[in-house]
Structure formats: structure tokens, C-alpha cells
Amino acid sequence: MRTDIVPGATFPDYELTDHTKTRRRLSELQGIDPMILILARGHYCPKDHQQHLELAEFYPKIAVSYTQIVTISTDNILETNEFRAAVGAQWTFLSDSGRKIQQDLEIQEYTDPHHNPMIPYTLVLEPGLRIYKIYNGYWFWGRPSPEDLRQDLRAVSQKVRPDWDLSAPGLREDWEGEKKLHYPYGQRR
């Protein structure tokens, strides 16, 4: 991984084609929420399947917690759709069949020249694509469990949600006024 891709840094705002053949930017998919970003080997990898099956089971909690999730693999669009369907995922999958991210982040998995995938990483991102945590998943046990993600996302949410504790001074007054400190943070409801 490039040396500048570390906790506290901003992850690049890549634009790729999603499973519906629509071009999407990571920042657009993230919006104002935390995000789990999975850089995956792809449909052929049983470790990726297992990780994504666990995430699909965990997804209802991700969805209600105002957290986004995105998977990027080096699969083409057809394989991307097959991967997404095979694991029952409800989130966006992006195709990087041109290996733009693999090359830019210097994460070519040189031990598999046949598939030429990315080294699998899972990143937990704060709003603004700010890196909170990076998991190297070359070996399966390096990948975060749903409980690891829960702990990370709790810490991120406490950090970035000014309305985390509704008893905090000034929140009630803000609610009765401009609502700048309440989700969706200054946007009209």
C-alpha cells in the first residue's frame, strides 16, 4: 500500500463503474456518513465470499446506522454482478477491471499473476473519505469481523456525530433552532 494511505489521511476519491453500469465517485456514495470500503480480490476468491456473506448478514445494522458500504474488485461488470448476487449483497459494488486502484495504491497481489487481483483491504472511513482504520486481508484472519467493524464504527460515530449524546449542552437549543448539530447536520428536513 502506498505510504500516504494511513489513518488520518484522505482516501482518493476514485470514480468507477458500479454494478448497474453507472459511473460513481466514492465521495458521492459516502455522502456525510461513515463508510466501510472493501478492496476485494473478486468473485473467484472464497475468502472474499466468506467476508461478504458475513457483511450481508450484518448489513441490516449497517443500513440503520447511517453507514455506507462499498466493495471494489478487479472483476468486470458481469463478474461484479455475479459476485454481488452470490453473496446476497445490497450495497454498491464497483468494477476496477482496468486495475486503476490496484496500480495507483500499489496493491497488486503479485502472488497471483493468473487473476492479477488487488491485495484485499478493508478500510473504515470517516466522512470526507478520511481513513480511520485499515485492515490487510491477504490472510482471512486479517479481515475485520462484524464485531471489529461495530467497534470501529462506534468510535467513528462518537467522533463525527455532534448529536451522539442528546444530553450534551446546547443540543436541545440547536434542535429548537437551526438544527446544525443534528443529523443531517444543517440540511433542511
From TrEMBL:
Signal peptide region: none
SUPFAM superfamilies named in the record: Thioredoxin-like
Domain Alkyl hydroperoxide reductase subunit C/ Thiol specific antioxidant: 8-127
Gene3D superfamilies: Glutaredoxin
Protein name per its UniProtKB record: Alkyl hydroperoxide reductase subunit C/ Thiol specific antioxidant domain-containing protein
Organism: Dictyobacter halimunensis
